[in-house]
Amino acid sequence: MATLRELKGRIGSVASSEKITGAMKMISSAKMHKAEGALRQLRPYRDQVETIIGNLLGSDAIFDSPLMTPRDTVGHLAVVVWGSDDGLCGAYNINIFKQLLARLGEYRQVFGESVKISVVPVGAKMAKAAAKIQIPGVDVRLPKGVDSKTTEVRDFTWSLRDSFLSGEFDLIDVLYMSYKSVSRQRIESSRLLPVTSETFADVTKDVTSRPYIFEPSPDAIFAKVLPMYLLAVMQDIFTENRASEQAARVMAMQSANDNAKKLHDQLQLEFNKLRQQAITTELLDILGGQVK
To answer: N or C terminus of the chain with fewer C-beta within 10 Å?
Structure first.
């Protein structure tokens, strides 16, 4: 049985852990709210770009873009997968990595066993996990940090675009955690390139076909707007990933804090019982001495 001194030491350690997890929860919560604010600022821009593309697709103009041209065969594809740079966020990275492995199996079923797959991890934790993949035909590219600045996100997006246009990749997919709320995040897998018209189905369904006068040409407008859409999507994904990571960390720190509080209460109860027992024993000894 533990002594009073040992229990007091354990109670002090648990109390310190409770303070640390509480502080980390507040820090993660502040970062999450910051990412939420960034998401609210990004969404109107992305919605407007999608509306412009939807109006173009709903018009009677004829235009084309190499970014929307599917390849006859897919011999080499890339999947960009987002994780976190730091830990202490529960099963956040594990859940995404499991989904990645499932997607790799689906690719081989759809495109054949000979298809080459390049995994592009974003985040140190995801890069570490992806480096352990031992599947024939699958290679892991250099990782990207999750806390990338606007210029870094733009350069990363253009590098993916150029890899698609040059023919290095026939297909580029993205896999990330979509932010819904503090307690709910959902893994999303979508096609980045080639861009499909189905992506704008919700926008074009309300657009009636009518004649437009374009200045400059429809191809010139489309060639400018489509890369803007890709960049908006990428910025949105980076921001959603940051918000989801911090939300997962808030929940993990809340769980750790609750467990620490529960353990603290149990140790305090045990300490009080042991202390009361010691006092009772001393009183009995005193009373026993007086009777004698």
So the answer is: C
Contact predicate 177/186, CB 8 Å: yes
Instruction: Extract the tokens encoding 56.
Output: 């173009």
Q: Which domains are assigned to the chain?
A: 29-250 (3.40.1380.10)
Question: pTM here?
Answer: 0.82
pLDDT of residue 290: 58
- Token output for 18: 């409770």
Strand partners, 138: 117
Handedness of CA 108, 112, 113, 116 (dihedral sign): negative
Q: What pLDDT digit, counting tens, does each position of 187-199 carry?
A: 999 999 998 877 7
Contact (Cβ atoms closer than 8 angstroms) between residue 185 and residue 198: no
Closest by Cα among 118, 165, 162, 115 to 142: 118
> Helices 150-165 and 218-291: crossing angle, nearest 10°?
130
Distance CA 188, CA 38 (A): 19
Burial class of residue 276, CB neighbours in 10 A (0-12, 13-18, 19+): exposed
For 138, counting Cβ atoms within 10 Å of its Cβ (0-12 exposed, 13-18 middle, 19+ buried), the class is: middle
Closest of 234, 78, 254, 231 to residue 168, by C-alpha: 78
* Residues paired with 177 in a beta bridge: 187
Q: Looking at the chain, which runs of residues are DSSP E strands?
A: 76-82, 116-122, 138-140, 171-181, 184-193
